[in-house]
Design brief:
- The chain is mainly alpha-helical and 309 residues long.
- Helix content is 73%, strand content 0%.
- It contains twelve helices and no strands.
- The longest helix has 29 residues.
- It is globular, with a radius of gyration of 22 Å.
Length: 309
């Protein structure tokens, strides 16, 4: 077991097998509740697969077995619906291709940073220390099920697009462009961050190049906008109701009030320059100037006033 846990290739193979089994568990749960409406069946299958991955994480002693789940959840359910309904019209194909590109970027990024099954995200390590004997419950509810529910509800516009046999219209391409443009932002941010990590001389330095120069979280910005694009495709199909907005709002709240504050609190524990970096940069906005521009103008005005007084 130790040999498998320390080897990257074997670790990825184990994860591949686990996810194949999770899909099987999800399908069994989906088929078992055939008397329910299809979205409920999909959600139950999704939750069953999540619990399976959670149990696998307990056995392997790492919550990071769940990390790839966010990237494949929507695509796998979408493909299930497409094959089940046999509805491969142009709109479904274009929409699914956009989802595939999004999933591929996340999956490749996970593989590039994954080194073995011994890996565990720093957030999970902190939660393990903070919650003690309640950690596995926190792992299930907070690390696994909460993201699963959020992604599921954020994916409802895509699922409904397939289920309702929506006709393709040119204005839906606006949403597709937003999705692909957002993935591009994430990809560029990934490349710039990986380059920085390779070239940095100390882990306490701050990446402030490229997209990271004026915004602290271009990857999170891209992620939020991807789900906004998914929502737009369906909204432009003229089939909308209040339920489809819940997921996108939840994604935004998750990043804005949980992921970003947690990450920045962590960075400030070992990056002395991070506080200054926060003052100069926007959190989730990419602009060709820094926050300091407006601060500098105010300071210059104050200096002039002081000299004339």
């Amino acid at each position: 077991m130790n040999t498998i846990k320390k080897n990257k290739s074997l670790g990825l193979l184990v994860l591949l097998i686990l996810y194949a089994l999770a899909i099987l568990v999800g399908l069994l749960a989906y088929n078992h509740f055939s008397n329910l409406e299809i979205l409920w069946r999909l959600l139950i299958g999704d939750v069953a697969a999540t619990i399976f991955i959670w149990l696998a994480g307990i056995i392997l002693n790492t919550a990071s077995t769940y990390d790839p789940y966010w990237s494949v959840q929507t695509l796998i359910i979408g493909l299930l619906l497409l094959f089940n309904n046999n509805n491969w019209n142009i709109g479904n194909i274009i929409f699914t291709c956009a989802i595939f590109i999004y999933s591929l970027r996340l999956t490749v990024n996970f593989i590039s940073t994954f080194y073995s099954l011994e890996y565990e995200d720093w957030r999970y390590k902190n939660l393990r220390k903070q919650t003690g004997k309640f950690y596995y419950l926190v792992d299930l509810l907070g690390i696994c099920l909460l993201p699963t529910f959020i992604v599921f509800f954020a994916s409802i516009p895509y699922f409904n697009y397939i289920l309702y046999g929506v006709s393709f219209a040119a204005n839906q391409l606006i949403g597709i462009i937003v999705i692909l443009g957002s993935v591009l932002i994430e990809l560029v941010a990934d490349i710039q961050m990986h380059t920085y990590i390779k070239e940095r001389t100390t882990s306490s330095s701050v990446c402030d190049k490229g997209l990271w120069k004026n915004t602290r979280h271009p990857n999170y910005l891209g992620e939020i906008c991807v789900w906004g694009g998914i929502l737009l495709v369906y909204v432009f199909s003229s089939h909308s109701n209040w339920l489809i907005y819940i997921g996108f709002i939840a994604v935004y709240l998750l990043f804005k009030f949980i992921s970003i504050p947690m990450a920045e609190k962590h960075f400030m524990t070992y990056k002395p320059e991070y506080e200054e970096y926060r003052k100069k940069t926007f959190s989730l906005v990419i602009l060709p100037f820094s926050k300091n521009n407006s601060v500098d103008k105010e300071s210059s005005t104050d200096a002039v006033n002081n000299q004339t007084n």
